[in-house]
Amino acid sequence: MILNNDKALKVAEFLLQIKAVKLQPNNPFKWASGWNSPIYCDNRITLSYPAIRTFIRQTYTDAVLESFGKPDVIAGVATGGIALGALVAQELGLPFIYIRSSAKGHGMGNLIEGHFEKGQKVVVIEDLISTGGSSIKAVEALKDAEMDVKGLVAIFTYGFSVADENFKKANCPYVTLTNYDFLIEEALRKDYISMNDVTSLREWKEHPESWKK
Fold first, then answer.
1. What is the helix (H) or strand (E) element at residue 51, kind and residue range?
2. Blockwise average pLDDT, block size 10, the chain, 213 residues
């Protein structure tokens, strides 16, 4: 879900401007899954641009408050959601924790790092949603720790139906600052792509596993 269309277009503009997102429908990238993809996304690049970082932080914060109310804790998903989540927690004056991709193999063997208490309300911060797998894993870790997960906020989603299904099964609502459709709209408006590219880009979203095989 998108809360503000104008902000969604602005975030898309920033991602394209700093090349956090690259669109190459005629020279696709190869994902670890083996899928060919016309898009590459690395939202951590936003951290290197102070003005954009500030806008992202404030937009995240608005999304948290408008969608879920003020929680007790902000949790970031490793690795992309750690720095972004800490920024949101600072903006809200809240404690911050983060969820590892797997439990630490030494010491306390923690999966969740930082101080938290059972029953606390938590909103999860993620940088990117593809299928939702890693995000749901983090959400389940928080639920296993008996925290009250109110929802998740991410910068960007590709808009795959499987992600919607996974979040629904996990009973975890989510919102994003922008998405694939807004990105294509902004890329076309700013001449990053041509109208001829749009058909191919939309075909990929519908059938990413078979696109240009």
1. helix 50-68
2. 91 98 94 92 97 98 98 97 98 98 67 97 97 95 97 97 95 97 96 94 92 86
**CB proximity list for 161: less than 8 A, separation 6 or greater:** none
Cβ proximity of 152 and 171 under 8 Å: no
5-206: CATH class = alpha beta
Taking each helix axis from N to C end, the angle separating 195-206 and 180-189, rounded to the nearest 10 degrees, works out to 170
The number of beta carbons lying within 10 Å of the beta carbon of residue 134 is 18
**CA angle at 14 for the pair 195 and 189, rounded to the nearest 5°:** 25
**Which residue, among 106, 100, 109, 154, has the nearest Cα to 132 in the 3D structure?**
154
Structure tokens at 170: 């996990």
Contacts of 187 (CB under 8 A, 6+ apart): 12, 16, 23, 193
The DSSP code for 159 is -
| Calpha distance 153→65 (Å, rounded) | 11
Helices (H) and strands (E) in the chain, counts: 7, 10
Estimate to the nearest angstrom the gap between the alpha carbon of 199 and the chain centroid: 25
> Which run of H or E residues covers position 99?
strand 96-99
Query: Could you give the count of Cα atoms lying within 13 Å of 144 in the half-sphere of its Cβ?
Result: 10
Structure tokens at 76: 């970031």
Of all helices (H) and strands (E), which one includes residue 29? strand 29-30
For the chain, give every domain's residue range.
5-206
